Amino acid sequence: MPNPKKEPFIKNRLKSVGYAFKGLMVLIKTENSIKLQLIIATAVTIAGFYFHISTTEWLIQLVMIAMVMSVEGVNTAIEYIADFIHPEHHPKIGLIKDVGAGAVFIASIIAIVVAGIIYLPKVFS
């Protein structure tokens, strides 16, 4: 059986970006945790400009923002899959969701520690 004709590379990549953007919009519209993370990301970005953080600090801050929000997106996907597979409460599904939430918690705690390392010396100097 012959392979169906593949789409041109650029067209395929543009579709992929469209799907990714759609997923981002779903996260922003439906997940309160992402909304809170966007508020925090905006606040630390403003703080970065106010305190004139270094290029290295900007890079680290941006990586931390991306890490927390990306892990939150993966956690949300895990929750959607778990709810789809087993809509009723089930202890194993609860465990799966707890592990995903734990990953977000780890990323968030590390982001807070990094923010403290960047900003506390500036605030108290």
Automatic annotation (TrEMBL):
The chain crosses the membrane at residues 34-53, 99-120. It is found in: Cell membrane. It is a multi-pass membrane protein. GO terms for molecular function: kinase activity. The keyword Lipid metabolism applies. It comes from the Bacteria. InterPro entries: DAGK (IPR000829), DAGK_sf (IPR036945), UDPK (IPR033717). Its main location: membrane. Pfam families: DAGK_prokar. Its EC number is 2.7.1.-. Belongs to the bacterial diacylglycerol kinase family. The keyword Cell membrane applies. Keywords: ATP-binding, Cell membrane, Kinase, Lipid biosynthesis, Lipid metabolism, Membrane, Nucleotide-binding, Phospholipid biosynthesis, Phospholipid metabolism, Transferase, Transmembrane, Transmembrane helix. This is Diacylglycerol kinase family protein. PANTHER family: DIACYLGLYCEROL KINASE.
